[in-house]
Amino acid sequence: MKYRKIIHMDLDAFFCAVEELKNPSLMNKPFAVGGSPTGRGVISSCSYAARKLGIHSAMPTAQALRLCPELILVSSRHREYSQKSKMVMDILADFTPRLEQISVDEAFLDVSDIQKESYAIALDIQLKIDFETGLPASFGVSTNKLVAKIANDYGKKQKGGNTYPRAIQVVEPGKEADFLAPLSVDMLWGVGPKTAEKLKINGIKTISALATANEDFLIAHFGKNGKFIKNNALGIDTRPVENSGEMKSVSQEMTFEHDISDIDVILSEMKLISEKLGSRLRKKNLMGSTVHVKIRYFDFKTLTRQISLSSPIDQDGIIYDHAKRIFMDHWNQKMPVRLIGISVSRFTQGEKQLSLWDTGEEKESKFLKVYDTLKNKYGNEVIKKGSSIQKD
After folding, report:
1. What is the pLDDT of residues 233-265, one digit of tens each?
2. Is 212 inside a domain boundary?
């Protein structure tokens, strides 16, 4: 019987690894890439030496510095991270066209057609990435995406230490359930902190306990997710590795310096976000039929809502109008807002057919074509839309 060979690749502490290439004196020191400690900055990535001291990603920068005063803070270099990421993805594409990039530093590969043992394939890729980019990477290998990802997480934890793990963890065909069985439930996809806590309260601490749990009990406590996590606990996953050339959504977010209750400030920021989003869509020649809004309140409670449209859009004003409608319908005015985000999905490519008579929507499309052309030729400051100009 022929089994699939699926690899999950994860660049180890990617941002930090790029920073060390730029500044080797950072090696083996507690440092982090993150935002300013005087504002709402958070840690994006931290070195393994910093992790040993309790620092972790998404921790507020100010808190990280209180916990570790000797922590070296480095500002993000997003363009360089993107360049390095592309180099790595190009290397992966040399091994197989069946490549699914899931983030700037993670990807799945289906290498079933390569006539080598799984470990040897992963090692070849690891060495090539290291040689051509200087970046460390870890790998999980299994017959499906679910187990390959967990294998990678497990392999890196087993390495420990103050340096990059560069782990390769292989789960042989037929051993998926055995591999998962002793692991903690919180290592499983679909099991977040709250779900894990609730499972453990009910005596379900390991993945094997979850796999043998009564399905009706799980559905009663966790709804549809109960059945989903039970199936995951059995190590069954038939999803293919999908070519990630097709973008699923385009999003833009803003975290406020201070929690905001002023509706005018929030809507003004949503307008700017919509302009950036529309510009990105048009640059990629994409139009979307679903608009999503994310609202994160001062206490980190997060609400996401969406609306499906009858025809695809890429115009700033139309995106804003729908996003505003969603926001106004669902905003809890008693809770200050920490973060606002807008995204567009369900894409089609190309331009929408214009009608014989100019509608307001079509006039905006024509204007935006000229606007984008001028920006691309002369820079962002050559022209400003009225909505972008700050009033005194």
Report:
1. 999 899 999 875 556 778 888 888 889 999 999
2. yes
The answer, yes or no, to whether residue 145 has pLDDT greater than 90, is: yes
- Polymer length of the chain: 392
Would 266 be classed as within a structural domain?
A: yes
Q: Are residues 296 and 256 in the same domain?
A: yes
Q: Which domain holds residue 373?
A: 249-388
Partnered with residue 11 across adjacent β-strands are: 137
Are 123 and 186 members of one domain?
no
Is residue 339 pLDDT above 70, yes or no?
yes
- Give the number of domains in the chain: 3
Question: Sheet holding 43-46: strands in order across?
Answer: 43-46, 31-34, 72-74
* CATH at 69: 3.30.70.270
Verify that 161 and 82 share a domain, yes or no.
yes
Distances (CA, A) of 392 to 257, 273, 381, 389: 20, 21, 19, 10
CA dist list (Å): 187 to 149, 170, 177, 182: 10, 17, 14, 11
What amino acid positions are annotated as catalytic residues?
Answer: 106
In this prediction the pTM is 0.67
Task: Identify whether 112 is part of a domain.
Answer: yes
User: How confident is the model over 67-77, as pLDDT tens digits?
Assistant: 999 999 998 88
Same-domain pairing of 107 and 150 = yes
Q: Does residue 134 contact residue 21 with C-beta atoms inside 8 Å?
A: yes
Q: What is the torsional sign of CA 20, 22, 24, 29?
A: negative
Residues 8 and 136 in one domain: yes
Rounded to the nearest angstrom, the gap between the alpha carbon of residue 205 and the centroid of all alpha carbons in its chain is 27
Question: Is the per-residue pLDDT at 161 higher than 80?
Answer: no
Question: Band of the pLDDT at 368, cuts 50, 70, 90?
Answer: low
